[in-house]
């Protein structure tokens, strides 16, 4: 636990933007012993299958395929739908979103974001559609739902696939149930920094059994049976030790979310009156997951965004500028016509103002108060 009984002096413990949740070791050891005794380490072992079933029940979905990480899941999702040509996506995300397109030989087409949600702006999508466009790849940024109805309407009108990068959106619901039911596929990440983690891991939410069957084959090199390979698949299988971690952590997920919610609430209360600091809108729908706590540092704040970033680091508080730079600013993308800053004014502004503050279950509220105090009086 972070001890933060300080008065603007150095923290007694480094405070990062996030910290992986680890269950008590004694809860994990019996699973580890079963793995050792069974000698089944991977290839759809008992814990792998149990976690798939448990996650389907917990998330309210019918079919789910586990993966070694979220990036390989994104790459496979696109392959499974045979997406080609151009795909409309957001410049405001982690690079894995667009990298998955390049791995499939697909051209990313960047579209600007909504200034309030920082999600892909549906009003900008239609103008970016060309005869080569085959899909839309939006991101539920920070776990806040995209405008799924507007995006699906556009996709239906132009016969486009929709694959949601839902890396941040584990456990998020809207009025109709799980947010993950939207689109042709949704992709989760279970990286150590996520609200639900398996050390490393990911998953694809599948609409039916036949789609799951194809994805299961693609994540196992494309094997159909012992001697038949019918597609250039990849090694995306989740190992048993990762699945075991997921089974243990799932037991306390509600408590984890309650803790994150308390931190979120405390930040909002303490930062609400600070000039130049805007907290993004809270979780949408029935239940959010408080995956991140992003603030926007405006021109009327006492410091620049980077000035505040470095001020916090001086006292061993380490926020992150998620997402800066924009994906579209990296060398492999910036030559694309859609990557021009004049095409992405809202995304450019967000990337210049964003700062994600520390939020994780073990973060004490006293520490949250100290972070807020330094922001209010830098």
TrEMBL record:
<comment type="similarity">
    <text>Belongs to the DegT/DnrJ/EryC1 family.</text>
</comment>
<keyword id="KW-0808">Transferase</keyword>
<protein>
    <submittedName>
        <fullName>DegT/DnrJ/EryC1/StrS family aminotransferase</fullName>
        <ecNumber>2.6.1.-</ecNumber>
    </submittedName>
</protein>
<dbReference type="GO" id="GO:0008483">
    <property type="term" value="F:transaminase activity"/>
</dbReference>
<keyword id="KW-0032">Aminotransferase</keyword>
<keyword id="KW-0663">Pyridoxal phosphate</keyword>
<dbReference type="InterPro" id="IPR015424">
    <property type="entry name" value="PyrdxlP-dep_Trfase"/>
</dbReference>
<dbReference type="Pfam" id="PF01041">
    <property type="entry name" value="DegT_DnrJ_EryC1"/>
</dbReference>
<dbReference type="InterPro" id="IPR015421">
    <property type="entry name" value="PyrdxlP-dep_Trfase_major"/>
</dbReference>
<dbReference type="InterPro" id="IPR000653">
    <property type="entry name" value="DegT/StrS_aminotransferase"/>
</dbReference>
